[in-house]
Design a protein that fits this description.
- By secondary structure, this protein is of the alpha/beta class.
- The chain has 2 domains: 7-163, Rossmann fold; 176-269, ProC C-terminal domain-like fold, CATH 1.10.3730.10.
- 51% of the residues lie in helices and 12% in strands.
- It is built from 12 helices and 8 strands.
- An 8-stranded mixed beta sheet has the order 3-2-1-4-5-6-7-8, with helices on both faces.
- Helix 7 packs across helix 12 and helix 8 (176-194) packs across helix 9 (198-218).
- The longest helix has 21 residues, at 198-218.
- It is elongated and about 70 Å long.
């Protein structure tokens, strides 16, 4: 394998496109010899392929990738993947599909032996994602290093020790950006209810959340310690936190229930 791996990306929608942009921005893949397969690829993806030398929808047999990245919609997998079975014989197949087990992906790829599952999230598009990684024993150390190298170009990585744990990753970080967006939405709506304009409330909510996240990255203190540091006894923050997470731990219980529901659904959808 060359210093920069060659990849074949199947599916360039929201997640596939996010990963591709992350790789290209980081210079993490070799453009020549890499390819994107998506008959409905957006114009932006076509432009990226042209700019960086990736083939767009070539004949599969003309591509010899190190990694085969599977980012199609799960319901399309059974129909789409058999055409790439030959590529999976020599490449490490990395599925980013929710709800598709290694066994089902391997079957669709004609019995491919080296199939891993990865669950990234949307900030991968700007290199700020986080991905849960799982590889079975059929993937050796070199294969694991390749998986990690590709996903680190899109952000942080966390290895898990079972395929079931990918469902837990899905519930925490895969779906997690939507929880954050909902909090921003709710905080802005609360500001409007108090009497702020929609524009002012939206800017205050968004900048507060993104600023707090950026600050947390620079700190060695835990989130709990940071929360305590800004919560003065008898003050405004304490009044709010008593509602959100007081004696009944309302927010924690709600988050527990929400994440458990997402994990349960991920398990139900997996075949």
């Amino acid at each position: 394998m060359t210093e920069k791996p060659k990849v074949a990306l199947i599916g360039a929608g929201a997640m596939g496109g996010a990963l591709l942009r992350g790789w290209l921005t980081a210079g993490a893949i070799e453009g020549a010899g890499s390819a994107v397969f998506d008959p409905g690829a957006p114009e932006e993806i076509g432009a990226l392929c042209a700019e960086h030398g990736l083939a767009l929808n070539p004949a599969p047999e003309t591509v010899k990738p190190d990694a085969l990245i599977i980012a199609v919609k799960p319901q399309m997998a059974a129909a789409a993947l058999p055409a790439f079975a030959e590529l999976a014989k020599d490449a490490v197949a990395i599925s980013v599909m929710a709800g598709k087990s290694i066994a089902s992906v391997s079957k669709a790829l004609g019995g491919a032996a080296r199939v891993a599952r990865v669950m990234p999230n949307l900030p991968a598009a700007i290199g700020r994602g986080v991905s849960g990684l799982y590889a079975p024993d059929s993937i050796d150390a070199a294969g694991r290093a390749l998986i990690e190298k590709l996903m680190q170009a899109a952000g942080e990585t966390v290895w898990v020790t079972s395929e079931e744990a990918i469902d837990f990753v899905t519930a925490v970080s895969g779906s997690g950006p939507a929880y954050f967006f909902l909090l921003a939405e709710a905080l802005a709506e609360a500001g409007v209810t108090l009497g702020l304009s929609e524009d002012a409330a939206a800017k205050l909510a968004l900048s507060t959340l993104t600023g707090a996240g950026a600050l947390m990255e620079t700190e060695t203190r835990s989130p709990a310690d940071m929360r305590r540091a800004v919560t003065s006894p008898g003050g405004t923050t304490e009044a709010a936190l008593n509602v959100l997470d007081g004696d009944k731990a309302a927010l924690r219980n709600l988050i527990d229930q929400a994440v458990a529901a997402a994990a349960k659904r991920a398990g139900e959808l997996t075949d």
